[in-house]
Amino acid sequence: MKAVYIVLLLLMLVFISVQYNDPDGPIWMVLYAIPAIWTAIAAFWRSVLGKKWVHWVLLFCVFLSVVGMIYFWPRAAGWWRQEVWWEVETAREGMGMMIIAAVLLAVWFGRPGSGKTREVE
């Protein structure tokens, strides 16, 4: 799982870096930084995820990302097609929130004690 978290971290860092010329780029930089931080914790400081307060903060971030995904869900017809999301900002934003939620869910289900992973020493 460590390799998966590192790949997701690098992906989030790329997403942060391409926001530099977007009018609402700073907002999206912060939004992509949240899963970047969580994947870094999962990859390099995994033991922190076992703490109860960290568990609740992560759960809160997952909850907010799902709410954000619902709020930003693309309303454009055929939003998944390249010719649509290439032109429609709201489609890209909706897909961005889907990616954020998916990454945070990957951290949630891969955390120690989730029952989904087995600790290997």
Give structural notes.
The chain has 121 residues and is mainly α. The chain has one domain (2-110). It is 69% helix and 0% strand. The protein has 5 helices and no strands. The longest helix is centred in the C-terminal third of the chain and has 22 residues, at 89-110. It is elongated and about 45 Å long. The two termini are 13 Å apart. The relative contact order is 0.16. The mean pLDDT is 86.
Helix content: 55-70%
Structural class determined from secondary elements: mainly alpha
User: Helix tally?
Assistant: 5
Shape: elongated
Got a strand count?
Answer: 0
Oligomer: single chain
Distance from first to last alpha carbon: 13 Å
| Parts with pLDDT < 50 across at least 5 consecutive residues | none
- What is the radius of gyration? 15 Å
Task: Report the biggest beta sheet as strand number plus sense, adding barrel if it closes.
Answer: none
Count of spatially separate domains: 1
Taken as a percent bin, the fraction of beta residues is under 5%
Can you give the mean pLDDT? Answer: 86
Order of H and E elements: HHHHH
